[in-house]
Design brief:
About 40% of the residues lie in helices and about 25% in strands. By secondary structure, the chain is of the alpha/beta class. A hairpin with a 5-residue loop joins β3 and β4.
Length: about 160
């Protein structure tokens, strides 16, 4: 199976979530199941069924995170000499040629992407257009809402 690229920060966040699920959430729901079970008849015990559902969600998320973490390739952009080019993990400040507005994106792994936070997946149309370009380059690409043109104002590796 191919390794999935992820930034150092994205990897840390997944590890923190997994640790919290195992050390806090799982024990909490196990206690809730025990308390609900003590109330007697399990067939009509809403607390018990809710806690069991929650346990199912937690266990599924733990398995999902363990799977992702076992298949990840952590890329530390600060350790790569990119020569000013846009690469995975870099932060890019852009000028929208149409609106004259500046926008900043960081190119990240698929599991880290959050457009509202300025985190775009390396497989997105804008990332594919930006990768290997440099400061001052003009980038054109097809976005879901039409053709877009950006000028790369700055490339950072943080």
């Amino acid at each position: 199976m191919n390794k999935v690229p992820m930034t150092v920060r994205g990897h840390e966040l997944l590890q923190e979530e997994l640790k919290r699920l195992k050390s806090v959430d799982r024990p909490t729901v196990i206690k809730a199941i025990a308390v609900a079970r003590a109330h007697g008849d399990l067939k009509e015990n809403a607390e018990y069924h809710a806690a069991k559902d929650q346990q199912g969600f937690i266990e599924a998320r733990i398995k999902e995170l363990e799977g992702k973490l076992s298949n990840v390739q952590v890329i530390d952009v600060t350790a790569i000499e990119a020569g000013g080019k846009v690469i995975f993990g870099s932060t890019v400040r852009l000028l929208d040629e149409e609106t004259d507005k500046e926008i900043t994106y960081r190119i990240v792994g698929e599991d880290e992407a959050d457009i509202r936070s300025g985190l775009v997946s390396f497989s997105s149309p804008i990332s594919r257009a930006l990768i290997s370009k440099s400061e001052g380059d003009i980038v054109e690409f097809k976005a879901p809402d039409g053709d877009r043109v950006f000028e790369i104002m700055e490339v950072r590796y943080e």
